[in-house]
């Protein structure tokens, strides 16, 4: 599969963008999370390349893209503009479909909840990355209802992020151990085959830079959640064995995204690696259904 690399600017940020697949198919923009790069989608892309034009990119602070120094540069509002910049560059005249995982999904939620997002995004498939405002609102509601099980399970799952909030605490473990043993750790944490993990050469740097996403966004969003709705069709792929993002946190998702489809996999957090064929199948089915609805609407 031939891949073409280009650079897309967004102000002072240069984003490394990679294009492959069928140039005549619907465009799918794929957004990775922490601490991955665009390579997260290699397995999924193999299953989608025949029918779709595939675009992935290294998000700011990762891989071959610009690494901002200031924590404020990693706020969701800024990260969403990166996604829109890529969309405008690769498909200026047609809206695209978005497939995103982990922090890439958190960033894409920010984008699809922007006014007029549907003019540029036809559908959004979200894997293991919630809208932080929705998550905070859900947690507050359940606590007010004295239904503590769901919020407690997510608090336990997210306990590691406390260390990520404190500058300097997580840096040495990430640089000295996790970056060197990442495939083995994912085998332990997620139960996947370490052979499917292909760490980027920039992994150690990406791990540390990516911490700024946590510091820039988690506390502000959990402290003061916003009302964020979207009319973009959304598919949730819920990984039942996800140890980082618990499916319960999406209980109220239809309130915020009324055009919602749910699917689940018997998978852990890194399902784009462990279940690439399933992710590709679910994404393709959803995209094709949205495309069919679009064509029927245009011909009516």
Mean pLDDT: 95
Backbone CA Rg: 18 Å
Class based on secondary structure composition and strand pairing: alpha/beta
Order of strands, main sheet, comes to: 1-2-4-3-5-6-7-8
The CATH topology is given as Rossmann fold
Number of distinct helices: 12
Number of domains: 1
Number of strands: 8
- Sequence stretches where pLDDT stays below 50 over 5 or more residues: none
Which band does the percent of strand residues land in?
A: 15-25%
Largest sheet: 8 strands, mixed
CATH homologous superfamily, by name? Alpha/Beta hydrolase fold, catalytic domain
* CATH-defined architecture: 3-Layer(aba) Sandwich
SSE pattern, N- to C-terminal:
EEEHEHEHEHHHHHHEHEHH
Q: What helical percentage do the residues reach?
A: 40-55%
Distance between the termini: 37 Å
Overall form: globular
Task: Write a structural description.
This protein is α/β, with parallel strands linked by helices and 300 residues long. It has one domain: 3-Layer(aba) Sandwich (Rossmann fold). 43% of the residues lie in helices and 17% in strands. The protein is built from twelve helices and eight strands. An eight-stranded mixed beta sheet has the order 1-2-4-3-5-6-7-8, sandwiched between helices. The mean pLDDT is 95.
Provide the descriptors you would attach to this structure in a database record.
300 residues; alpha/beta; 43% helix; eight-stranded mixed β-sheet
């Amino acid at each position: 599969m031939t891949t073409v690399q280009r650079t897309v600017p967004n102000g002072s940020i240069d984003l490394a963008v990679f294009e492959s697949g069928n140039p005549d198919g619907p465009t799918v923009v794929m957004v990775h999370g922490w601490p991955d790069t665009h390579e997260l989608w290699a397995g999924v892309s193999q299953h989608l390349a025949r029918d779709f034009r595939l675009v992935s990119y290294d998000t700011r602070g990762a891989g071959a893209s610009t690494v901002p120094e200031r924590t404020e540069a990693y706020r969701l509002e800024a990260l969403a503009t990166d996604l829109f910049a890529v969309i405008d560059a690769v498909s200026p005249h047609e809206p695209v479909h978005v497939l995103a995982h982990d922090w890439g999904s958190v960033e894409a939620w920010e984008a699809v909840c922007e006014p007029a997002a549907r003019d540029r995004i036809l559908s959004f498939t979200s894997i293991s990355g919630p809208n932080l405002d929705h998550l905070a609102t859900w947690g507050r509601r359940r606590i007010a209802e004295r239904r503590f099980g769901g919020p407690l399970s997510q608090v336990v799952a997210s306990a590691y992020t406390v260390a990520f909030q404190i500058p300097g605490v997580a840096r040495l473990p990430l640089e000295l151990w996790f970056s060197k043993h990442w495939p083995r750790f994912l085998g332990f944490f997620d139960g996947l085959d370490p052979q499917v993990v292909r760490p980027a050469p920039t992994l150690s740097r990406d791990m540390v830079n990516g911490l700024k996403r946590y510091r820039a966004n988690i506390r502000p969003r959990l402290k003061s959640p916003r009302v964020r709705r979207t009319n973009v069709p959304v598919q949730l792929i819920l990984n039942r064995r996800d140890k980082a993002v618990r499916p319960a946190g999406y209980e109220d998702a239809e309130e915020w995204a009324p055009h919602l489809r749910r699917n689940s996999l018997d998978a852990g957090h890194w399902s784009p690696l462990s279940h690439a064929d399933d992710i590709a199948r679910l994404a393709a089915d959803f995209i094709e259904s949205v495309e069919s609805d679009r064509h029927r609407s245009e011909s009516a």
